[in-house]
Design brief:
There is one protein chain. By secondary structure, this protein is mainly β. It has two domains: 6-75 and 204-278, no CATH class; 82-198, Immunoglobulin-like. The chain has helices spanning 69-72, 126-143, 207-217, and strands at residues 6-15, 32-35, 45-53, 56-59, 63-66, 82-86, 96-103, 112-119, 149-152, 158-163, 168-169, 173-174, 180-186, 189-193, 195-198, 245-256, 263-278. The radius of gyration is 26 Å and the shape is elongated.
Length: 282
């Protein structure tokens, strides 16, 4: 029987593009190419991806329909989510102004909520209150060792909150920014949500994403790699979390033969090319 329902394969090259070789026999070390059943280079269609890893050929599963390199390559840097809150209206002495942040922390049930209060006193303006709310939120985050956000007030009466990429720990933490939303309560409005200044995105082909995928897929296909519990020792992956990759992702559903019948299997093949690497040899 097939040992698993779904299969992920990750091939990583330190070159920034696919190979210029015309046959599998001439594939240079470190390069990746797409080859047909006759081992000739193919631009699209049926075939498999092959990486020459120091003289050892690592091959993906055979796919029926590859769209082609030009249409499949993708890279985008992560964009950090940013929200802006603006205090308006006349200051009401004695009233409570409240800055609130809700974070969605992976693995945590419910919201992680932090609040920063300030009660207006004589002489306060919207600018001084914004500064006080910023300082109170920064202090609250520091007390708990929370590094998920930066809080500033770059303009009078404004509070700006922006996400921060978190540390990447293989097999434990993905290194993404924490999703959040903000609001402010003041006398002139009961509750006002923060304005999204920049909508965040996780990007495509970030080093931690490729490394996490390769770490997860470790041992699926390559006979020379270890196939054991992944938290026992450092994985022998080819990617680096500190690099950026142009990625090609191919998803197909194939029938794999087993002892009794063919088993439908979902296959995902990820090809990662170092965005800042050298060009493939001519």
């Amino acid at each position: 029987m097939n040992s698993q329902k779904d299969v992920m394969q990750v091939l990583v090259s330190d070159f920034k593009d696919d190979t210029n070789a015309t046959t599998l026999a001439t594939l240079p070390v470190g390069e990746i190419g797409f080859f047909d059943a006759a081992n000739a280079i193919a631009a699209s269609g049926a075939g498999r991806f092959v990486l020459n890893n120091g003289g050892v050929l690592i091959e993906s599963s055979f796919v029926k329909s590859f769209a082609g390199w030009a249409s499949a390559k993708a890279y985008a840097a992560p964009v950090l989510h940013k929200e802006t809150l603006v205090l308006t209206g006349a200051v009401v002495v004695g009233s409570l102004y409240l800055l609130r942040v809700e974070m969605d922390i992976k693995g945590m049930t419910g919201k992680y909520i932090k609040e920063a209060p300030h009660r207006a006193i004589t002489g306060d303006t919207t600018a001084t209150i914004a500064t006080a709310l910023k300082n109170a939120m920064v202090a609250a985050l520091i007390r708990e060792g929370n590094t998920a956000l930066t809080v500033t007030n770059p303009a009078p009466s404004n509070v700006v909150i922006e996400g921060v990429l978190q540390p990447y720990v293989p097999g434990k933490k993905l290194g993404n920014a924490v999703p959040f939303r903000t609001s402010i309560t003041s006398p002139d409005t009961e509750l006002k949500l923060g304005t999204i200044t920049t909508a965040g995105s996780r990007g495509v082909g970030t080093g931690n994403w490729v490394h996490a995928k390769e770490f997860f897929a470790w041992g699926n296909q390559d006979a020379f790699r270890y196939n054991s519990w992944r938290n026992n020792f450092e994985p022998k992956v080819l990617s680096s979390a500190s690099k950026s990759y142009i990625t090609v992702v191919v998803d197909e559903r194939v029938n794999m033969p087993s002892a009794n019948a063919d088993v439908p299997v979902n296959i995902q093949i990820i090809v990662a090319l170092n965005k800042d690497g050298a060009a493939s040899a001519v």
